[in-house]
């Protein structure tokens, strides 16, 4: 089993501790590859749209994005972590997700993504963890992932793990371990179910790509959909 972890910060704080607790159930049975942002993806997307018009290899940060993309495609489980910064995921997380615009369903989604599972781990001081998780889930769902587990932790009074009350640490630990057990018991030899919402999104994008491909057979996205067989009867699930 392969797990790819995207850490939204290099800081080893509360989010890091929660992620470690989640992964504990997988340590003995999975190959875990971790990336830390911004170290492993230091460049911002400049909006040049080269990835969508010319291909992902034309991106100025292709060296970093290609490595992470391959790891995500090989993963049976994707784990995304991020503390909440002003009610949103970290800027480094947003920068990475911007780079993966070409993997959105309106462009060139990877067929492998439709059978994957993902977990999002967020926490914050007070409120904001849910909106941070929503930032990440929005992208994952448009990549084609239907099975997404979410952990949101709300801290009060302090953001240092060692300074949290024993009761608060126990509550967070119990909650994250419950999610961990749920995903540890999944049979990863079988692809995840693709839900109706994802299928509807795909169908809408298929109509769009079919029209674009008809008007310009060399348009990169439409050509990709045709090669996958999705403009005919083929489907990624």
TrEMBL record:
GO terms for molecular function: oxidoreductase activity. It comes from the Bacteria. Residues 1-146 form the NADPH-dependent FMN reductase-like domain. It holds the Pfam family FMN_red. SUPFAM superfamilies: Flavoproteins. PANTHER family: FMN-DEPENDENT NADH-AZOREDUCTASE 1, FMN-DEPENDENT NADH:QUINONE OXIDOREDUCTASE. This is NADPH-dependent FMN reductase-like domain-containing protein. The lineage of its organism: Bacteria, Bacillati, Bacillota, Clostridia, Lachnospirales.
């Amino acid at each position: 089993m392969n797990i790819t972890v995207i850490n939204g910060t290099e800081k080893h704080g509360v989010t890091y501790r929660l992620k470690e607790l989640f992964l504990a159930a997988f340590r003995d049975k999975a190959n875990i590859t971790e990336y830390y942002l911004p170290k492993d993806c230091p460049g911002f997307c400049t909006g040049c749209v080269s990835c969508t018009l010319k291909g992902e290899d034309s991106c100025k940060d292709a060296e970093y994005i290609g490595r992470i993309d391959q790891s995500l495609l090989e993963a049976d489980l994707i784990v995304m972590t991020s503390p909440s910064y002003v009610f949103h995921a970290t800027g480094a997380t947003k920068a990475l997700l911007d780079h993966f615009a070409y993997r959105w369903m309106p462009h060139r989604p990877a067929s492998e993504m439709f059978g994957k599972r993902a977990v999002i781990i967020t926490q914050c001081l007070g409120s904001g963890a849910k909106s941070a998780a929503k930032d990440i889930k929005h992208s994952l769902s448009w990549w084609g992932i239907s099975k997404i587990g979410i952990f949101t932790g709300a801290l009060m009074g302090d953001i240092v793990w060692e300074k949290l009350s024993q009761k608060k640490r126990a509550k967070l630990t119990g909650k994250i371990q419950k999610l961990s057990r749920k995903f540890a018991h999944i049979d990863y030899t079988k692809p995840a179910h693709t839900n109706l919402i994802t299928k509807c999104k795909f169908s809408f994008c298929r109509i769009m790509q079919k029209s674009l491909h008809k008007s310009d057979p060399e348009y990169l996205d439409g050509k990709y959909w045709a090669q996958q067989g999705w403009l005919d009867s083929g489907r990624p699930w």
